[in-house]
Amino acid sequence: MDRIEIQLYLMSMEYLLVSPESLKRAAEVLRSGGLVAFPTETVYGLGADAYNSEALAKVFEVKGRPRFDPLIIHIASIKALGDAADLSLLNEETRQKLFLLAEKLWPGPLSLVLPKNERIPNLATAGLSTAAFRLPANELARELISLSNGAVAAPSANPFGALSPTRAEHVRDKLGEKIDIILDGGPAHIGVESTVLDITSKNIRILRPGGTPKETIEKLIGAVGDNDFQAGEMAFGLASPGMLKSHYAPQTPLSAFSKKEITRLPCEKNCTYLFFDGLSRDKWLEMSPNASSFSVLSETGSLIEAAARLFDVLHELEKGGFSRIYAQFAPQEGLGAAINDRLRRASSE
Ligand code: TXA
Ligand code: MG
């Protein structure tokens, strides 16, 4: 690409603070088949009109995302689910569970896999007869969706496999010139993607741990299964391709370690250490008085704070020129399941 072309590209991207005017403008762009990056409470999404195949094709192209990886369909109200999902295919028991989950946990970081109707192109769902639906908690996101055609397909707004964007700047730095509009609505406060739950199969299960803890779901509908991490190694026939083993990865190699392993952490030059909490860091510092670079996800060990900071901190560390990041797993409970899932997939082993 020569210089002039690059300039044209850059000029065509609009970076706008969220306002009533910019939301209107962004909705117009969505309606006419363009791409809009917008804030949600989990991470920034790369939105396209979910009913428009050409717009959907652009999403895959811009992200470098394989076509076997289906997108999440964002809606602005529970009622709007009927416009894009075929709920007549659900049996009574599943229907009850759906409405219980939707009434209690929507809007929020939960994507529900349901039968789609014929209005949603197969491209959106990688040929599956189901789609993942989500009603985001971010009001500005819902406003944008309701001003558009009512259903917005949006994967995380990052190149495929890379760290997810929790700030508009992350989107601009990695995808900027390829998108029509980036709406800046400040940092995403949850910081990890939505939990993807498949309620259509007989054994209801979490396909991707995320912002809604398993415990919260189980309180409402009883025991649910987990995604088998090993299964993610298969490239095809994935129940949920977010299961791909290598995903959410920084450009710097990353090794994850458990609390027990703190005393055995290698002491390498030019690497950096990311601790879950202040106590773990202190324990490590006692043994490594010459320690150089380290950071902490949550000084007090709050899972909510740690999740909110995870991708943000990894984006910063990625720019630090380190040879390796050693990152500590969180306790495997609540949002810790999502944090640990992302660390496992980010890990280079
Ligand atoms: O928090 C989020 O969910 C963010 C924000 C932007 O809303 N979006 C997001 O989208 O993370 P994406 O495309 O990066 O992840 C979509 C996940 C993938 O793991 C995909 O495999 C799964 O949802 N998924 C989508 N449709 C599915 C389906 N029909 N069956 C099973 N899994 C599906
Ligand atoms: Mg993603």
CATH topology of the largest domain: DHBP synthase
Give the number of helices.
11
Q: Give the cofactors and ligands.
A: threonylcarbamoyladenylate, magnesium ion
Order of helices and strands: HEHEEHEHHEEHEHEEEHEEHEHEH
Low-pLDDT windows of residues:
6-10, 230-238
Overall strand count = 14
Mean pLDDT equals 91
Distance between the termini: 36 Å
Written overview of the protein:
This protein is of the alpha/beta class. The chain folds into two domains: 3-236, DHBP synthase; 254-347, 3-Layer(aba) Sandwich (Rossmann fold). It is 32% helix and 17% strand. The chain has helices at residues 3-12, 20-31, 53-63, 81-84, 92-105, 139-147, 168-175, 214-221, 278-287, 303-318, 336-346, and strands at 14-17, 36-38, 45-49, 72-74, 110-115, 130-134, 152-153, 181-184, 195-198, 205-208, 254-257, 271-277, 294-298, 324-328. The strands form two sheets. A ten-stranded mixed sheet has the order 1-8-2-3-7-4-6-5-9-10, sandwiched between helices. Magnesium ion binds at residues 155-156, 164.
